[in-house]
Structures are given as structure tokens and as C-alpha cells.
Amino acid sequence: MKPIFLKPAFQEKIWGGNKLKTEFGLNTPSDKTGEAWVVSAHPNGLSHVAAPAEFAGLSLKDLYDQEPELFGPNHPEPFPLLVKILDATDDLSIQVHPNDDYARLHEGAGELGKTECWYVIAADEGATIVYGHHAETVEEFGDYIESGNLSNVFREIPVQAGDFFDVPAGTIHAIGAGITILETQQSSDTTYRVYDYDRRDDAGNLRDLHIEQSKDVTLFPHQDSAFTKQNATYEKNTLAHLMTNEYFSVYKVEADGAFETELADNYYLATVIEGAGSLTVDGERYPLDLADSFILPYGAGKVTFDGEMAMIMSSPNY
Questions:
Q1: Neighbouring residues of 85: CB distance < 8 A, sequence distance ≥ 6
Q2: Predicted structure pTM score
Q3: Beta-carbon contacts of residue 260 (< 8 Å; ≥ 6 apart)
Q4: How far apart are CA 167 and CA 130, in angstroms?
Q5: Measuring CA to CA, which residue among 311, 308, 303 is closest to residue 279?
Q6: What is the Cβ-side half-sphere exposure of residue 266, based on CA atoms within 13 angstroms?
Q7: Whole-number mean pLDDT of the chain?
Q8: Could you give the residue numbers annotated as active site?
Q9: Taking residues 190-219, what's their average pLDDT?
């Protein structure tokens, strides 16, 4: 049972920077790289297999299609999850994502909705996110938009490293400048912009907004998820549960030395977000460095993590 190590796909963004290169050692294409899609079978950014050798060069989508036994008895199409590292040098647009039903109806049969969650890897002092809104109804929300009084409707929250936010479909949100996150989400690339600070693209055009779609999909009133945690601490040498929804479960591993854990029957996506160490599976040891991302295939069973490192892991729910 060999772990599947992946090479990321990169996305250049108007708000991107160079931390993915300078702090995570990734071979980014420019100093405006906002996202590394470290585990992705989405056609807009495919991860490719780096190891083991028998699968090297395959996209994750092709691996999923050609080697279904690696992913267990349930095999929904498309590959259900996507994991990213985001470097926000500037504020992201304030946005919202649809649920599955709305996405299939309006974006095409193959597109999923987008429920996601964020683990804050790093945040500059004073950094903030937008998480939710103050409007009680869609009509009140529309009044704010039409009046241009948007600064009073969005809910701004200070963040620091270690914070965790559950962002279900329908939640208005935005990552602020100076924040690096690990995002786990459904495999979707559908985003509706509510506000974008009147920014222009490279051609000098204002970026598109999606006001009507945003009204359609936003949840009223906003309610924080019970899984959202700020200033939380986690016991070392454990697989700490962060959240579970109908699409995925998310965990944090903090290794301080060696510890063994037995994984339930599923496959797992993992990314090293701090430090370095190793993984041992079936008696074979694999070194792990910062930003390494891999899949533990279905039925891995007992695994050992060693070193001084932190990882975010996730598994799909069907």
C-alpha cells in the first residue's frame, strides 16, 4: 500500500503573491501565484502523480478512473474533493458559492456545488476575513447592494494562525490580505462575486460581479457553523477531528516524535502545513517535507507519523 504523492497545479490571481515559492518551496510560475491545487482532479487545475513510479505522470483524474481499487468500493464521479493552499497578498473578492442543485442547474451537469473549509496556516498581525453578513432577508441584502452601502453588511472577523472556519455553500466569505490557508472543498470552481473593491483585470476591465446568483444562493440569515473554531489548541500525536459534513471529514495531525494511528476504511488526502517528518505504511518509510501532498489509498490501516510537523488530512463521505 503505497502513498500517492502529487505535484500541484498553480493558479495565478490578481491577489496572489510569492509565499508559495519563498515559504513553501513550490515551483510557482510567477510572483502573483494565489493558489496551489495540491490535490485536484478538477479540469481547471489537475494535480499529477509524482510517485510511486508506476503511476508517475498520470493526472489525478486519470488515476481515479484507471485505478479505482485505490479509492475503495464507492466511486462517485467526479473525484469529489479538492485541496488548495492559498496565499492572499491582497484581499480576495467577497463571494459566495452555490449548493449542488443550483450548480447542476445553472453551471452544467458535471459541476458540483462548493462547500469548503479553511485552516489558517499563517496570518499577518491585524489580518481579517469576511465571514457572513448582517442582512436578515434577501430583500434587505438587495437594499444594501443597491445603495452601495456594502461595508455595513459584511461581517469582518480578525484571524490568526490555527483558526478553523467551516464555510458551507451559501456562506458569504472572503480571505483577507496577509493570510495563508489550507482549503478543503468539494471539487468545484464555481464562485459568485458579490463585491470586488472596483478592481480591474490586466486589460483594465472591471471584474464581473454575480449579484443575482449571489441573491439566489446566499443563506439568510447568516449562522456560524458549530465546527468553526478560533484560538483552539489540539493535543499532539493525535488525529484531531475538525469537522464532518455530508461531503468530507477533516482532521489535523500534530506530530512531536513518532505515533501510530489506525485509519478507518477510506482514502485520505494529506498536506504538510508545518515542519517535516516521515510517514510509515506497510513497513515502508516515506520522508515528508513542508507542502508535500499525498493520498493514502483505501485500506491503508495502521500508519505511523514521525517528526515535528503538522498536517491537514481529509476523507470523502458518500
A1: 8, 20, 24, 35, 36, 38, 121, 180, 181, 182, 183, 271, 273, 291
A2: 0.97
A3: 302, 303, 304
A4: 11
A5: 303
A6: 15
A7: 96
A8: 193
A9: 93
